[in-house]
Design a protein that fits this description.
This protein is α+β, with helices and mostly antiparallel strands. About 45% of the residues lie in helices and about 20% in strands.
Length: about 260
Amino acid sequence: MLYDGTSALHLINIQDCNLNTTESITFSNGGLWVALLSSGEGSFSYNPPQSAQAGMLALGRSELTFTAQKNCHILYAQFEGRIASDFSSGLPVDLYIAKGESCPHAAQLLYELMHIDDTLTQSKIAFALFCELGNADAAAPALPELVSMAIEDIQSNYAQLYGVEELSERLGVSKSHLVRAFHSAVGISPGKYLTTVRINAAKQLLLHREYSLEVIASLCGFSGANYLCRVFKKEVGVSPAVWRSGAAAHGAVLPASQAERSLYI
């Protein structure tokens, strides 16, 4: 054999999943993954969370969780190799939601991969799939102005915000109107989104051992270390200390960035 295409692009995982409402699936780190949502709707644990509906494709290069808001069918494939790496580095963001109609043969190629065991044939189909995905157009709709303003305010002021009540007052609308508009556009409540932003900020600070839990709590908008621990374990599944130890074991402990140092100012 003059050339083995599997070294450039190969399938490492493929799953055909049916999710009931509120059930979730996690797409793993490593390589590039492609998910086709053929029915239902849900949202990805991105920042901000990204919603997806039937007919949409999602391309990702980091570990994310998709939670169904209606019963869903998802076909998910993960690839490694030079071509997958090049494609991944060309994505403008870690999660790219695409219109299914912009690459109409992608669904057929994914289903073919489900029924092929020969690795060389899989690589040929995967190459055709990646050529098709190169035409994928972004599907993320523009958010309503109120929701965009709320997201910007949360991301800029999560450490100082007392909650959704204060946020709605700052935006000049009622709390109930803000909650309805936000949930309709994003798929989760503004309170849940605020918690997600705070937890993500806490994770970044936990990467630096010089920050105590009390300091991290104050910088991220939690009332104290105990409350941070309760919320963190509920959202992440482990305590901040356990999460920090796991990050350190994988070499993720880093010096503070300029942006994080500015939180003290």
